[in-house]
Amino acid sequence: MFDQQETIAAIITAQGMGAMGAVRISGSEAFEAAQFLFRSKKGTLIQDMPHYALAYGWIYDGDVLLDQALLLKMKGPSSFTGEDVVELQCHGGPLVLARLLQALVSRGIRMAKPGEFSQRAFLNGKIDLTQAESVMDLVSSSNRVMAEVAVQQLQGSLSGKIKAFKEKIIGWIASIEAEIDFPDEFPVGLVTSVFESEIKVMIQQIDALLETAAYGRIYREGLRLVFYGRPNVGKSSLLNGLLQQKRAIVTAEPGTTRDVLEERMMIQGIPILLMDTAGVRDTGNLAEQEGVERARGAAAQADLVLFVLDLAQGLTEEDLLLLRDLDPEKTLLIANKADLVTNRVLSFEEKVKGFEVCILSAMEQEGIDALIQKIRERFESGTLTAGNEAVLINHRQEGALFQARKALESAQEGLLRGETTDLLSIDLQDAWSYLGEITGETVKEAVVTEIFARFCLGK
Question: What is the pTM of this model?
Fold first, then answer.
């Protein structure tokens, strides 16, 4: 754990040249340290400036003028870290910022470690652990939806749900404890029928929240798109078409693709993991059989399946057999090789009701833009995302919530078996503790240190 008694400083703007750069100082000596370097144009001392005040002046290292600057004063506890904070905003040259930071270090200010400002905010009760994690998710957001989820989490969308669960559980525990400790005053603690109903509802609500873990993975890692279908329908050509480079081998010989080929790209700001798979067919070749099994597994785990068929051949019985195992809501039916047919009227539409169809030619790059638009629409429509609800954004949150659910389920089963209330209280306390791990109230110190160590320098 970091030493909170020390005053720390770090460059909080991105590395490299820029119009503006900033250094943040946080701790009990922040104002004094900044006063050594900053000279206000009006001669105002930092200690005399009001809270949330901005001053213009110059930065000196001794008698050496370093730069012009704006100084922002934030008095604790009403700051991000909960401590006295000064931010010095000057020109964004890396040399200027390095000299400014070195001047602070020479006066006893310690350089902040990665995540230390956010960790101090957490330790000082300014944010909980879910909000702290959302800070880094917001910084690293690679698409609009991920950024929106991170902002909602920063505002407490997940914290609010967890807090409501905990308050309900602590109410149950209080009733049980009152019945045990003061049987005369509280002869009846929890009403069994009411408790049974309430705990059932909470488990259902937790299950709904656990389902959002898949959405959180999409926001972090990107949308898994799997090319799926019979051999030689153009899956690899479509992969090359989207990448606009010859990444996959394309031949007329069936079974060319034997393994799952993965490529990453951005589609209109959305992170995408493209997965080309072997053509699915019955084969006696052991290597190809393994490729077919991997293709089926990839399709089962996909966020969106691009089921490719040969428009020149039309919809075959083999296509229909494969489509039976796919979810229409998570599948786009790609009618490929449109360049080989003159009549593009789809005679098989009745057989694929519920599946959205996209006609294109991967080889001629015809219809690729329309496909990209459909992928984006699926991503943002809510079919593949959680909308504006609270979302579990990492495995730590998911794991703790799952354990809380198990503890509640144990209490529910004990209730049905007629166990004594003191035994039920143990399960409820476990559930409360696991929920506390999500927000950081009961999490171990080592876990907290590990989480903040992943943050970038300056946060």
Answer: 0.72
CA separation, residue 436 to residues 135, 204, 206, 258 (Å)? 19, 19, 14, 47
Backbone angles phi, psi at 49, to 5 degrees: -75, 145
Q: Which two tokens stand for residue 378?
A: 């699926």
The 10 Å Cβ neighbour count of residue 1 is 10
Mean pLDDT of 98-104: 92
442 contact partners, CB below 8 Å, separation of at least 6: 433, 434, 436
Q: Residue 107 has which token pair?
A: 């006066």
Least Cα distance to 338 among 458, 234, 450, 445 occurs for 234
In order of 142, 208, 264, 438, the CA distances from 220 in angstroms are 8, 20, 13, 18
* Runs of H (alpha helix) within 324-394: 368-381
Query: 70 forms bridges with which residues in the sheet?
Result: 56, 89
365-394 residues labelled b (16+ CB within 10 A) or e (exposed): eebbeebeebbeebbeeeebbbeeebbbbe
SS3 content of the chain, % helix, strand, coil (to 5): 45, 15, 35
- List Cβ neighbours of 457 (8 Å cut-off, separation of 6 or more): 10, 11, 112, 113, 114
User: DSSP per residue over 289-326, as a string?
Assistant: HHHHHHHHHHHHH-SEEEEEEETTT-S-HHHHHHHTTS
Domains and CATH numbers, the chain: 8-127 (3.30.1360.120), 139-212+391-440 (1.20.120.430), 218-381 (3.40.50.300)
Mean pLDDT, all residues of the chain: 84
In this prediction, residues 164-190 reach a mean pLDDT of 75
CB-CB contact of 129 with 443 (8 Å): yes
Do the beta carbons of residue 27 and residue 34 sit within 8 Å? no
Quick one: average pLDDT of 127-131?
Answer: 92
Helix (H) or strand (E) holding 69: strand 64-74
**What percentage of the chain carries pLDDT values higher than 70?**
87
Confidence at residue 128, expressed as pLDDT on a 0 to 100 scale: 92
SS3 230: coil
Beta bridge partners of 23: 11, 88
Instruction: Report residue 197 as tokens.
Output: 């109903």
**Backbone CA torsion sign across 238, 243, 244, 249:** negative
Q: Beta strand 110-111 with 8-11: parallel, antiparallel or unpaired?
A: parallel
